Amino acid sequence: MTGTGHVEPEAGIRPGAGRIVLFALHSDRGDADDATRHQLEALRPLAARLVVIVEPGLAAGHLDAVAELSDEIVRHDGVAVDARAYRTALQTIDVTPYEEVLFTGNGWFGPIGSFDDVVGRMAASDAGVWRLIETTDRHPEAFPLEGFSRPLMPWTWTAVSADAVDSRAWQEYWAVPREDGEDAFAEALEARGVRGSTAFSAVLGPRGNPGVLAPGALIDAGCPVLLRAVFAQFPPLLDRFAVLVRPIVAEMDRQGYPVELLWRAVVRTTPPAALNALAGMLEILPDAAPGADAETKGNAPLRVVVLAHVPHLGFVDELAERLRQIPGPFDLVVTTTDGRKAAKLKARLRSSERDWARNAEVRVTWVPGGRDMGALLIGCRDILLSDRYDLVIRVHGREPRRKTLNIREYGRRYQLENLLSGPGYVQRIFDFFRREPGLGMVFPPIVHIGYGTMGRGWGAYREPAEDLADVLGITVPFDEVSPLAPYGGMWIGRPSALRIFAEHDWTVGDYHRSRRARWVELTRVQERLLGLAAAEAGYHCRTVLNREHAQISHTALEFKLDELSMTTRGYPVEQIHLLRRAGWTGYGGVVALTRMYINLNHPRVASVMQPLYRTARNAGLMGKRVLSAVRNEHKDDGGDL
Q: Residue 447 pLDDT > 90, yes or no?
């Protein structure tokens, strides 16, 4: 697969005069993200002709951008993920003048380092068909019940020599439309006598799938790409094979790949909580200040505003103590529920303004049923929509109802201390925002000590959240079990990450109706959508813990998971799949156990009965919601997570 070119080659790169690149562009969102454009720019020096195959749904603006980076656009009337897309291009383009045909697409991130070694190995090979990554697993595991179907991705990298293109094997393969994947194509040519070779063998990874189940080993071996399919996997599957995405991304960053392109691409296509788990996006931070070489050196100070909701004056002293942990100047806006509280708060601010903030004001935002979310989105909407601040710190003094003193105390500490633990701690959070322009929000992980939120973070709010997401234009896929969200309502974030919420014209009436029919507890629905709203805007989230709470949380979580795993066999991915197939246990009565037995052993019968059961269950849940709404109609603040 050698050739000559009409241009001077770059050092270490085989000239592209003899190579035609067929690049299939697939997008679930109808766009060509920045990572895809980066791919095309990197492939440009390797190609005498760069042809991009696009799907019907690609938006006009993105189509124009891709056209500028390519020599030709070919429109495919289906999904550009299998041989049929490339066949469409081959029907309109004569590839016989070229010494090599390279099939690829936007199913990977790269180059990691450069393509020098890859093109060198391609040039040195005498194979007729040459694959970058061999995969022998034709049907990798999928978990549709958990929200992870088999991902659809274009081919990664298969090159075919001119001799193979002239062969009968090539003609026979492309004679009819095919749904074949990349490996089936290469093996079909090999079965017809074409010599084949691969750069990275399937044996590098478990189950013959190194691209998904051993991406770190591939990169260590010199592979210049990371498959996007890694970010479409069920996290416990990667856990099963010890696939650690966080150090992989760090290595990509070390080798010069602009990882912000990766984050912007995956944050809008991967459910946020799944991405948080896949990429290990929890930060355990010390209270000590960063060293002299920290990110803050030489940088302009961040413009910070604290939006604090104070429903009762007993929270004032604790708020003041936490605000003293913020390094550098900041402004303070306090919202409260009535004029008497506001007057007392103003007096407190005047007497100790230097301890509180650079500038401070108090706003009365009485939103019955709106809790702190109504105060934020109605009372502070102008701040969220302005460009005056780089970061918003959101805290409040809301206390959960129906919780014991211990749980209330722990829950408040968990929220406040994991955001504002100390000046050095907060400075490190600020440095994350400086270092990662795509970081939208930071907040503590879902609280699990004293709360039963884990496993039911959506609870009764899933359907209302889907309705509200449609209204706001949020199309990021939902996590099936619990969303990645600041449960408890405290966070640090960029105003631009929440612009989708702020631009909507919320009214006091919205929160009134939430108690009856429209959204079902609108404040909790909004709270659970914050991470998804940030993702829709192209921002990723990180969770943070200080060291004390990390120690407390992990040991408790480890013991609980150990106990929950004792009655099911296998790895967690297998245990979870079994339990999801069985369905909701209820209280373990005869009806629930019978239903679970039918789900596991007679799935066809279960599919017939499921709508009837769901209707009865939803009717019961709606009755509980109505009763709860009546009881809580006049309570403005408080509530559980």
A: yes
CA distance 457 to 274: 14
**Which residues in 351-387 are b (16+ Cβ under 10 Å) and which e?**
eeeeebbeebebbbbbbebbbbbbbbbbbbbebbeee
What whole-number distance in Å separates Cα of residue 66 and Cα of residue 74? Answer: 11
Alpha-carbon distance values, 267 to 260, 270, 272, 438, 477 (Å): 10, 6, 7, 10, 10
Concatenating the DSSP letter of every residue in 59-117 gives -HHHHHHHHHHSSEEEE-SS-TTSHHHHHHHHHHS--TTSSEEEEEESSEE--SS-SHH
Q: Looking at 166-203, list the stretches that DSSP marks H as alpha helix, in order from N- to C-terminal side.
A: 168-173, 182-191
Kindly provide the residue ranges of all beta strands, DSSP E only, lying in 299-406, ordered along the sequence. Answer: 304-309, 331-336, 359-364, 391-396
Predicted local distance difference test score (pLDDT) of residue 85: 96
Give the model's confidence band at 288: pLDDT under 50 very low, under 70 low, under 90 confident, else very high. Answer: confident
The pair phi, psi for residue 457, each rounded to 5°, is -60, -35
Residue type for 561, please? L
400 preceded by a cis bond (ω within 30 of 0): no
The separation between the first and the last C-alpha atoms of the chain, rounded to the nearest angstrom, is 62
Task: Check residue 297 and give its pLDDT.
Answer: 57
Residue 98, sorted as left (phi over 0), alpha (psi -120 to 50) or beta, turns out to be: beta
Classify residue 183 by burial, with Cβ atoms within 10 Å: 0-12, 13-18, 19+.
Answer: buried
Reported pTM: 0.89
Contact status, residue 38 vs residue 263, Cβ threshold 8 Å: no
Mean pLDDT, the chain, integer: 89
- The Cα angle at residue 400 between residues 560 and 393, in degrees rounded to 5: 95
Q: Is 394 helix (H, G, I), strand (E, B) or coil?
A: strand
Tell me the two tokens of residue 72. Answer: 């030709």
pLDDT per position as a tens digit, 502-539: 999 999 988 876 444 455 689 999 999 999 999 999 99
- Over residues 50-54, the mean pLDDT reads 97
Q: Are 380 and 392 in contact (CB under 8 A)?
A: no
**Top-confidence residue, 299 or 460:** 460
- Which helix (H) or strand (E) is 424 found in, with range? helix 423-435
Contacts of 311 (CB under 8 A, 6+ apart): 336, 337, 372, 396, 397, 398, 636, 637, 638
With bands split at pLDDT 50, 70 and 90, how would you rate the model's confidence at 621? low
Least confident range of 131-140, 456-465, 598-607: 598-607
For 256-314, the DSSP string reads T--HHHHHHHHTTTS-HHHHHHHTT-EEEE-SSPP-TTSTTTTPPPP-EEEEEE-SSGG
Burial letters for 2-25: b for 16+ Cβ neighbours within 10 Å, e otherwise? ebeeeeeeeeebbbbbbbbbbbbb
Q: Assign 569 to helix, strand or coil.
A: coil
Tokens for 330, please give them.
């900041």
- Determine the pLDDT at residue 596: 83
**pLDDT at residue number 625:** 59
The number of C-alpha atoms within 13 Å of 604 and in the hemisphere containing its C-beta is 0
404: pLDDT confidence band, cut at 50, 70 and 90?
confident
Q: Hey, how many other C-beta atoms are within 10 angstroms of the C-beta on 580?
A: 17
